[in-house]
Design brief:
There is one protein chain. The protein is of the alpha/beta class and 120 residues long. The protein has helices at 29-43, 60-75, 87-95; strands at 4-10, 16-22, 47-51, 79-83, 103-104. The protein has a single domain (4-104), classed as 2-Layer Sandwich (Transcription Regulator spoIIAA). It has a 5-stranded mixed sheet with strand order 1-2-3-4-5. Strand 3 (47-51), helix 2 (60-75) and strand 4 form a beta-alpha-beta unit. Helix 1 (29-43) runs parallel beside helix 2. The N and C termini lie far apart (30 Å).
Length: 120
């Protein structure tokens, strides 16, 4: 069974940061989707940052929710960024439609780092 916690904070510049912890699977899909949509449509910060530093993997449903949040953010003038994904997640996100410039700080995993990501 997967275990995940969603942490939400607001940074000094007004950006809302959503930071999941652990594997984000189907059991978290509704909560993550609702949080992303509520933040973009109701809170409407200048920036929404989905920080994946502590996420080893996203299931396809949650991956799609993050991709959709980027599109929804464009519609509501909220810049959505995905920070600190591992390299595999960064590849999956861009393959699913997240613009490369919105995936920031991709971390090296067991594979090599692709030149189009800023790797740590």
């Amino acid at each position: 069974m997967r275990s995940s916690v969603l942490e939400v904070s607001t940074s000094a510049d007004g950006s809302v940061v959503i930071q999941p912890h652990g594997s984000v699977g189907p059991d978290t899909a509704v909560e993550l989707r609702q949080l992303l949509v509520h933040t973009v449509r109701r809170v409407r910060p200048l920036r929404l940052i989905v920080d994946l530093a502590d996420v080893p993997d996203l299931d396809p449903i949650n991956l799609g929710s993050v991709v959709a949040a980027c599109d929804l953010g464009d519609d509501h003038q909220v810049a959505v960024f995905v920070d600190n994904p591992n390299h595999r997640l960064a590849r999956q996100l861009t393959a699913a439609g997240v613009p490369r410039q919105r995936v920031r700080g991709a971390r090296r995993d067991s594979g090599s780092c692709h030149h189009s990501f800023v790797c740590r």
